[in-house]
Amino acid sequence: MRIRTLLFAPALLVLAACSSGGESGPAAVAPSPAAAAAAPTSSAEIPAVNTGRVDYSVSPAGVTTAVRGVTVDTSSPEYVDTCRDAYFWVAGGEGTTEENAEGFLALLQTDPAELGEDPDAGGYWADQTAEQRAAVVAAVHAAARGEC
């Protein structure tokens, strides 16, 4: 049984559901400024750098802790579910909520082979777009702030 899959299925669902067909990876290009201006008002933008590209922040432990330059729909059911599930993880851990949030993100970003899972099964962090990663990171940070 894949324990990680059972624990993080909602987070993986938000990753799968938030796909906008964009490119993934640190060098991915964000929508043009005109397209970004036309984005729906019900979305919250992750603190963005107006460079027209996606930027990632990585902790000293190598965990992606921010994705900037993309927009996240915080009203989607998948985002809400991930935020709620992350809240229970970050609130129930032994460390601070910030430490627990980074631990949650680290687990989601772990190479599936390291956990004995089939890396070809798909749906893992490396398989996701920048938008999908941003949605998970935003939900986890919102959970750490108690905003779910």
Question: Can you walk through the features of this model?
Answer:
The protein has 148 residues and is mostly helical. The chain has five helices and four strands, in the order H-H-E-E-E-E-H-H-H. The strands form two sheets. A two-stranded antiparallel ribbon has the order 1-4. A two-stranded antiparallel sheet has the order 2-3. Helix 1 (3-17) packs antiparallel against helix 3 and helix 3 crosses helix 4. The longest helix has 16 residues, at 77-92. The chain is globular.
How do the strands of the widest beta sheet line up side by side?
1-4
Number of helices: 5
End-to-end Cα distance: 29 Å
Helicity level: 40-55%
What letter string, H or E per element, gives the SSE order? HHEEEEHHH
Output the radius of gyration.
15 Å
Query: How large is the share of residues in beta strands?
Result: 5-15%
Briefly note the structural class of the backbone: mainly alpha
Shape: globular
